[in-house]
Amino acid sequence: MKVYVSADMEGVTGVVDAEDVQPPGRDYERGRVLMTEDVNAAVRGAYAAGATAVLVNDAHGPMRNLLPELLDPRARLIKGRPKPMGMMEGLTPEYDAALCVGFHARAGVLGVLSHSYMGHEIEDMWLDDRVTGEIGMFHAAAAAYGVPLALLTGDDAACDEATAWDPAIATVPVKFAKDRFAAQLVPVGEAREAIETTTAAALTDLRLAKHEPGQHTLAVRWQSASVASHLTAIPGVSRRDDRTVVVEADTLQLYRLFNLFLRVCSSVTSNPPYC
């Protein structure tokens, strides 16, 4: 069994603030350790369930967060950016399951460090007219590959978002949101044990989400009309209004196009995250 892990940081055990997850934040280096150990718990659970290979993709921010010297040596790591498929770089149909570790709720939800991909640059996203964020996009693209999303860890808001997309996803809430930068934390040891045991259990009962082939529609509403204006230079992208762009393609092409959107947005704006 081959297992793929996408590792974000905002939903990691113990972190609640931008200082915890963004360099050069005063607690960022500590946050890197917490992130790596949450991933290690998932890797242990995967191997306990019979995994023969685990690939981990560092999917947060600079994508250079996980500490290779602390990572379980049985795992292989994708580190750095840019990557054409961003948070799901390296995932292919040969994998038997995908795990999302340290994920967070979408923009507009009262979850810890909630946002959609870019701090505050994205106001809303819709996939086939259903409001979405990083979790819904990952779930749809994994299903298009034929790979079930077996597990997600994060705060309670992220876990609720995942099961709303697919009740078959096993979730591990490692904290409970009190506000966007405050949470009641699950003790670190307890959280990691839950990640390990839930991962092992989830990988014994894999169910693939239904995927509708063909064309799908992605709409993104940006904070800046300038971003929307620049994106219309991409063939197939149109504007619904001054700040909302729309594009149609198959699911995997939409995911890749969206990662191109993010690179364009980064070049047009210079706003810090989590404002």
From TrEMBL:
Entry annotation: catalytic residues: 115 (nucleophile)
Q: Which UniProt keywords apply?
A: Aminopeptidase, Hydrolase, Metal-binding, Protease, Zinc
Q: What is its EC number?
A: 3.4.11.-
Q: Does the keyword Ubl conjugation apply?
A: no
Q: Which InterPro entries does the entry link to?
A: DppA_N, Peptidase_M55, Peptidase_M55_sf
Q: Which domain of life is it from?
A: Bacteria
Name a GO molecular-function annotation: metal ion binding
Binding of Zn(2+) 2: at which residues? 8, 60, 104, 134
State the coiled-coil residue ranges. none
Residues that coordinate or bind Zn(2+) 1: 8, 10
**What is this protein's name?**
D-amino peptidase
- This chain's source organism reads Kribbella solani
Q: What is the lineage of its organism?
A: Bacteria, Bacillati, Actinomycetota, Actinomycetes, Propionibacteriales
